[in-house]
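Below is one record:
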Amino acid sequence: YLITLNFKRMKKIILSLLIITMVSCEKIIDVELTTSEPQLVIEASINWEKGTNGSQQTILISKTTSYFEDDVAKVSGANVLIKNSKNESFEFFEGVSNSGETGKYICQNFVPELGENYTLLVTVEGETYTSSEKLIATATISNIEQRNDLGFNSDEIGIKVNFMDLPTEKSFYMMRFDTAVDAYPIYEILDDKYKESNIISGLYTNEDLKTDELINISLFGVTERYYNYMKRLLGASSAASNGPFQVAPTKVKGNIVNSTNPENFAYGYFRLSETYKMTYSVK
C-alpha cells in the first residue's frame, strides 16, 4: 500500500514538472507576412428583386489591404456607368454617409430587363475597367422543409429550400443565407444538371440555430460563367480552413478587365440577377 501511494505521488510530481516545463517554453513568434500592392476591388452586383422596379442599384469600390488590417480601404472619386444594348446609360453617383464613408456608388434610375446585355465602365485613378454581362432570370421558392434531428447528436436544425427549375436549356442559381448565428452570409451554388424543369433544393444548417431564429434567404439567377467563378471562390475559401493541410491561396479573378493596363486587374465581378427573397422563421 505504501509503495502504491508513493508511486501515485511520484506521477503527480512528474506531471506537474511537465506542465511547468511546457508553460515556460511558450514563446511569442512574430510572423512576417509579405504585403502585395493594393489592388482595386469592384463589387458590381445588380440585383433586381421580384416585385420591385429595380431602379435603385449600388456598386462598391475598394482596395485590398493587408491581412491584419480591419478597415476596408474605400475608393473615392470614380466615374461609374452602365450601358445597355440600346446605348442607354445609367450613371452611378458617389454617396457619402453621415460618418463620411465613401466608396459607395448609387444609381436611382436603372432599368432592368431580363435577357438584356449590359456593359460596366469604371474610370478611376486614370485607368478604365470594363465588363459585359446579361441579366438572368430566377425561379420562385415554392416551399421550405425543416429537420430538427441533424448533426452527430441528432439535435441540429436545418432547412431544405425547394424551387422549380426554369424551363430553359441550362439554368444556374446562387442561394444566400443570412442569419444572426453566422458572422458572414452563407452561399450555395446550384444548377439544373439532371434536374432540368424539376425541383431543385438548397440546404442550410447550423448547430446554433434555435426556434424563432430568422433566416433571410435570397435566390439569384446567374450565368454559367458566374457559377464557375463562385465555384472556384467557394473552393478557395473552404480550403483556407483546412488547418495544416490547406492548399496554397490562389487569386480568383472575375470578369472585370482593365482596358488601360491589363496587368493591373481588378478583383470582383459584374453580375446582374433577378432575385427572389423571403424570410423563414425556425420552428
Remarks:
- Residues 2-24 form the longest helix (23 residues).
- DSSP finds two helices and 16 strands in the chain.
